[in-house]
């Protein structure tokens, strides 16, 4: 086997000679042309992206197979453990911090199941720590293993099932059974189950692409998970009076933290921003006239994740907007009341060095725990005891739900609401179906009027 760093890529091309649609990925390694055919354009583009990412990381390419180091390790893996480690190494550059964390949690759960019944199995907590901190993290983020972890790693290497054994659907079913239960023995939420299944399915599809599996064994497992309930509970939605009282109450919590966060919460209610979007809002993103409506154009978010999984090594990475291209923004008109709130906020607090409107004393970003604590204190001030014990505005995110519900009930067309909220129309209507009041009577009146004509 010879290695080379001399790699060039072509764009994917539709295979005109085949009856069924197929797409070819072509690249050159050390002057030798390589190619691979896929049944769909998305699969082909993903494979080409993986090749390019490997080249950017400085990996060598095998001149015989044309594959980079990480792919070759996955292709030549004897065991699931070896394959899963190579797969996570390949996926790491493509994923956001939260997706990395979710992928590693899933691969840990799968790897613990796909082992044989060897004796002297270490404690499950130790095995989880060994996998999550020493196997699936990049090498430069792994701590030095102690004697206990080293023992666990050697056991996992010996006990992991071979990739050939995974062709049997019974192992995939065993993994599904593990996904259906939480660590404490309770049934897992449908969204958790589906998220883990999606990660496992993608890993197996990658194994099929590399020729490690004959087909995806999950496709042969008859398992119909419960549908997740993505519809917003109308009981969490506050009316405008309640929202105003809550925002006022926030400003009374603490000397500076509450007053600083009051405007951030106002952005969630009056502009429908997600918390991470509000955290990333900068002065230059705001058009704030002295009178009438203005607008904000969120372009960056600051989602919170464990620092082990972020690119920066801190708890917050700056990223683009959710469900949008990296540099794509969206314009959100804001009413005069929010314009006034933001102008007053800037006058009192100014901005962080990077222009952000909402920041801690040290110029950092408020953690979810910090602003949640302020919100709960404000609920206790603004709501009645019965309301405090109810789901009403139980989380700051519910302000966004209240905003979108208000827009829909005000008669704003769904496409406009979806654009302001950063949703697709179908997700918008499915999510807020129970929060739209009075539409049935309006529809009945229109139908009745049409029948009379």
From TrEMBL:
Signal peptide: none
Domain Tyr recombinase: 233-452
Highest taxon, organism lineage: Bacteria
UniProt-listed Gene3D superfamilies: Intergrase catalytic core (1.10.443.10)
Keywords: DNA recombination
Statement: the UniProt record of this protein carries the keyword Nucleotidyltransferase: no
PANTHER family assigned to the protein according to its UniProt record, in alphabetical order: PHAGE INTEGRASE-RELATED, PROPHAGE INTEGRASE INTD-RELATED
Protein name: Tyrosine-type recombinase/integrase
Provenance organism: Nonomuraea typhae
């Amino acid at each position: 086997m010879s290695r080379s760093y001399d790699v060039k890529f072509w764009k994917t091309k539709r295979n005109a000679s085949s009856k069924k649609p197929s797409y070819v990925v072509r690249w050159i390694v050390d002057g030798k042309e390589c190619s691979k055919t896929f049944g769909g354009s998305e699969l082909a583009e993903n494979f080409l992206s993986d090749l390019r990412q490997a080249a950017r990381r400085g990996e060598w390419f095998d001149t015989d197979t044309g594959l980079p180091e990480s792919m070759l390790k996955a292709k030549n893996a004897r065991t699931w453990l070896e394959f899963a480690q190579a797969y996570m190494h390949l996926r790491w550059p493509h994923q956001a911090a939260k997706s990395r964390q979710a992928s590693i949690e899933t691969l840990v759960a799968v790897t613990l199941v796909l082992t044989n019944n060897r004796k002297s199995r270490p404690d499950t907590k130790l095995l989880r720590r060994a996998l999550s901190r020493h196997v699936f993290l990049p090498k430069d983020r792994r701590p030095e293993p102690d004697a206990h972890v080293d023992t666990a790693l050697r056991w996992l290497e010996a006990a992991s099932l071979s990739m050939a054994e995974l062709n049997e659907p019974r192992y995939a079913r065993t993994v599904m059974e593990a996904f259906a239960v939480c660590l404490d023995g309770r049934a897992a939420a449908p969204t958790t189950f589906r998220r883990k299944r999606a990660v496992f399915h993608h890993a197996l599809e990658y194994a099929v692409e590399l020729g490690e599996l004959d087909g995806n064994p999950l496709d042969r497992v008859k398992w119909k998970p419960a549908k997740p309930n993505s519809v917003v509970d109308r009981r969490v939605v506050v009316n405008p009076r309640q929202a105003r009282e809550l925002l006022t109450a926030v400003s009374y919590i603490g000397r500076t933290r509450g007053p600083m966060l009051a405007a951030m919460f106002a952005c969630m209610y009056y502009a429908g921003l997600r918390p991470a979007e509000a955290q990333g809002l900068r002065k230059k993103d705001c058009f704030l006239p002295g009178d009438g409506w203005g607008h904000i154009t969120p372009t960056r978010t600051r989602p919170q994740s464990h620092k082990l999984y972020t690119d920066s090594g801190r708890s917050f990475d700056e990223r683009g907007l959710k469900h949008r291209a990296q540099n794509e923004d969206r314009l959100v008109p804001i009413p005069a009341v929010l314009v006034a709130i933001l102008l007053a906020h800037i006058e009192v607090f100014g901005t962080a060095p990077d222009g952000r409107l909402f920041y801690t004393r040290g110029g950092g970003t408020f953690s979810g725990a910090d602003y949640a604590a302020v919100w709960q204190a404000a609920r206790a001030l603004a709501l009645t005891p019965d309301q405090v014990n109810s789901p009403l505005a139980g989380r700051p995110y519910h302000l966004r739900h209240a905003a979108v519900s208000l827009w829909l009930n005000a008669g704003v067309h769904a496409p406009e609401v979806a654009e302001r909220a950063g949703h697709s129309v179908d997700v918008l209507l499915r999510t807020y179906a129970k929060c739209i009041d009075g539409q049935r009577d309006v529809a009945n009146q229109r139908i009745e009027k049409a029948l009379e004509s």
